[in-house]
Fold these 4 entries.
Entry 1:
Amino acid sequence: MSTTMSTINTFSILLLIATASLATVCPDNEFVPDCNPIEPTCEDPLPHPLKGCPTTGACHCLPNFYRHNGTCVSADECGNFVDGFNAILLDAIDSCKANEKWYACGRQELTCLSIRFRFHPIMMWCLRPGCYCADGLVRDEKLGCISVNDCPKTT
């Protein structure tokens, strides 16, 4: 019995080590986003939106870093490489407020007002990365991201 448990424990540890080694390790100033939109570069800090958002598991530059010659550099560094570089500042990953989530592929949010007027945009394009209401929530101007049931009632 103890030999069987020992074999199971050894197998479990080996499986855990193998799984951990499969995780993508990114270089400095990079991370693996929830999807992979077109990455900003020093030459093109605001790339065109992408239809849909593929998930590849590849490393991308952190918000407010730009790809240049294969590495992610700060806006200040881009200014050294590209004349007239104009940074596009994005929400930092850890800057989201309550009930918000950072999405690499920005989304068209529903709002209490759009729900009231039955306007439901169809999400086809990957918008600017940043903080958006978490799934299942809508944005209210004053209250932030809330359940649709908590939207203020009109009189």
Note: Confidence is low (pLDDT under 50) at residues 5-21.
Entry 2:
Amino acid sequence: MGDTAKVYLGPAKVSFGKSDPAVFDLTKGVTLTFSQSTHPVTVDQYGEQPIKEIVTGQEFAVEVAIAESDFAKITKVIPGSIYEPADKKLSIRNAVGIDLLSIADQLTIEPNVEGAFDTITVLKAAPRPNVSRSFTTTGEQVYTVTFTAYPDGDGEIADFTNV
């Protein structure tokens, strides 16, 4: 029988950056996606029946919906943006040509309630923003960002640590 004490529920804290992390207030939770692509190997003698399957790639991504409009933090997740504190202005510039790996940094997902679930550390994650702001009386203005993970020099992508 399973261990019901290891069934977790709860909101998370997300921080981006290892040396000077930006910690975000979120809405609608955090979505972590991990998938593998494979190639089924076939030989003529077995027709379309695969005789084995080989992993050809992996994708690890984390999507967050940032609820706070702190431009100093938002600048860290919108490639090509510049925050001018004196003018209280966030300028979004053309980001064509930016190598996302060059701006990848550590992303950490921690439970808001101690012991609620594992802490997840993505070693190299680069932000890809998808901003859609709705100006209504019943909805938060949200900066949705998908962080794409890249392997480090040893091929490691993320660590899951029991708390």
Note: The helical segments are 71-74.
Entry 3:
Amino acid sequence: MLTEEWYEVEHHTQDVCGIISLVTNLLLMFLILTKSPTALGSYKWLMVYTTLFELTYALVNLFAGAVSFIFSIHSEITLFSVGTNVRISFHCVSQIEIQS
């Protein structure tokens, strides 16, 4: 299982990368709209649409965040036989964690 500290590091890393993504995509949008030559033609608009998609994705990821689902099952079957007494034990641990 991952520790709580790991989830904090992962959360902060996603926040920092999301902010970097927003800044670089906004800079890219500015450069495409103001500095691109007219010879690019319709390719310029493809780059604009791609940058808009990336900006939207970065905003959604930054504000909604990722959710980690951890699901683990541990099963253990023990069989003891002593004379005529038979002991059967079944141990099952199910754990579901949701980290956001």
Note: Confidence is low (pLDDT under 50) at residues 76-91.
Entry 4:
Amino acid sequence: MTDDWSEEQKYQRYVCQVYGAEYQDTGAQDIVIVERAWNNEALPINGFRIARTTEGPQWFIWFGEGDIPDDVGAFEAISAAELIARRDEAGAFLGLASGWRFRNIGSTTNVWFDPVILKW
């Protein structure tokens, strides 16, 4: 896992460079909050990273059109490594720093800084 995760982190750093974002490490065992109702083909993949104020999760990932669902029960906590095992294309963005968002629709990806996220 360590060698694989090192390779994952290298790619995450590259993605940050492409979008002009600061790199912020996400460990393989760090918790990511992911929408439960998803499968391996669900698009788009949406996500954002909040500022860490505790040891809690920083990443929120959901699928489909629209903004993040309001229903807290719609989400589950998994490790970053498990997210990548299920949806490796989402892993590319886990190095984005707090306040950054992404939306991946297969061949089209949008990445941007959203200062509102820092207030979560």
Note: DSSP finds three helices and six strands in the chain.
